[in-house]
Amino acid sequence: QLLEAKASLSLAQTQHALQVQQAKAQINNMVPKKQFEQLQTTLTEEQCKTRQLQESLHQQTEQTCRQLVRTQEEHEHLLQAAAEQAEGLEHSLKSAEAVLTERAAQLRDAQAQLSRNKLLIEDLRGENRQFAMALQAAELKQKSMEEKNQLLEEQASALKQLIGKITPASL
């Protein structure tokens, strides 16, 4: 029994030595309490900072999304306004084209009338030249007639004088 007790004791001592050695290794691997508390405080602070950063990031994301939605709405309004303006300009362009087409037709008509008027003016000039020549011929004839008339009047006056002289002498 003593041998058994010695063996048990030796076994227990060996186990105890092993446990002490393991405990020492664990203690060596362990961090001191003060350092552990500092690490835990740092960890808590870092977790708090991480939460704040996540909240800030979340807020920035929401703000960016809202701004993107506003920008997209503004872009759509601008696009719609530009489309309406383009439609108005297209309408104005069509109206201007219609007015220009009408004016071009009026100008063609006016040009045709002008050409007809030029021909009429040329005809009238020709007729005017003929009338001027006829008038000149008539004036020359009138002058010639006036000269003949004056000559005849002079002859008639001379005859009257001659008759006036002859008549008292014959009586």
TrEMBL record:
- Record has Acyltransferase as a keyword: no
GO CC terms = centrosome
As recorded in UniProt, coiled-coil segments are 79-165
Q: What is its main location?
A: cytoplasm
| Entry keyword set | Coiled coil, Cytoplasm, Cytoskeleton, Phosphoprotein
Q: Where in the cell is it found?
A: Cytoplasm, Cytoskeleton, Microtubule organizing center, Centrosome
The alphabetized list of GO BP terms reads: microtubule anchoring at centrosome
* PANTHER family according to UniProt: NINEIN, NINEIN-LIKE PROTEIN
Instruction: Spell out the protein name for this chain.
Output: NINL protein
Q: Which organism is it from?
A: Sclerurus mexicanus (tawny-throated leaftosser)
* Source lineage: Eukaryota, Metazoa, Chordata, Craniata, Vertebrata
